């Protein structure tokens, strides 16, 4: 890498050590010959406001935002793009000459991850497990495209609130239940796609799954947004039930690629970014 750095980008969250985004974005900068660097910054809840003031002062051109700041960060931004405003969460900030603008690229990420596996969500019946930050982005995006979205979450009131938020905003009826074997069986009976948008199964709790082969069937496509490990227990159970599976890597690549485009105005080298991620995940 040249010693000259034109622009600095990064990711803020707490914890931050597990983030694979630096690998992905630095590989993209290198491929395009841009003298830019992407760094992980651990920012506690208490320091979030100062971190954003610092971002402006130091002219850091863009941040990704991960747990626990995706919603809390909104009040410190100058502007929200329509998608982020609708979802109520931000995963990408662009420092546009001192104006901090918030975006959410997770929804686009999941749509592209499905499409590249020839699973266009249009007109599909989707079962979504989870009602946290990532699930909100997935739910709002798929509610616009899919025939139906059925949300299940451990904490029922969060699923109900998400369903109500979507209904109010998009005028589309969304079913919500608490996550249990019975509700899962009911939801999956007529489903085409199952998406896990919880953290269940993520390293180090890799022995956990939101569904077993007993409730899954060969008529559905199962996408797990958890990407570490790449093949989660849910995906292994789905394979055993004869279902088609999609890992969370595609979503990670595409949400990152869209952020890259927002920040740099360059067409992102998607396959370079994917290879950098896969290399790191295989190493881990
Ligand atoms: P979050 O806002 O903290 O939400 C966590 C979700 O997981 C909630 O729905 C929570 O349910 C559920 N949950 C946690 N532990 C559970 C358990 N033991 N049993 C059942 N449900 C449980 O987190 P997030 O930001 O949405 O992230 C969720 C996962 O998605 C993480 O693993 C993250 O790495 C991954 N992710 C992947 C991508 C990608 O590009 N592939 C992008 C974003 C996030 P309650 O509401 O009941 O607490």
Give a nutshell description of this structure.
The protein is an alpha/beta fold. It has helices at 21-32, 48-57, 82-87, 106-115, 133-145, 156-170, 181-189, 233-240, 249-264, 270-283; strands at residues 7-13, 36-42, 62-65, 79-80, 92-96, 99-103, 125-129, 148-153, 175-178, 193-196, 221-224, 244-246.
Give an account of the 3D structure:
The protein has 284 residues and is α/β, with parallel strands linked by helices. The protein has helices at residues 21-32, 48-57, 82-87, 106-115, 133-145, 156-170, 181-189, 233-240, 249-264, 270-283, and strands spanning 7-13, 36-42, 62-65, 79-80, 92-96, 99-103, 125-129, 148-153, 175-178, 193-196, 221-224, 244-246. It folds into two domains: 7-104 and 250-283, Rossmann fold; 107-247, Rossmann fold. The protein contains ten helices and twelve strands. The protein binds NADP nicotinamide-adenine-dinucleotide phosphate.
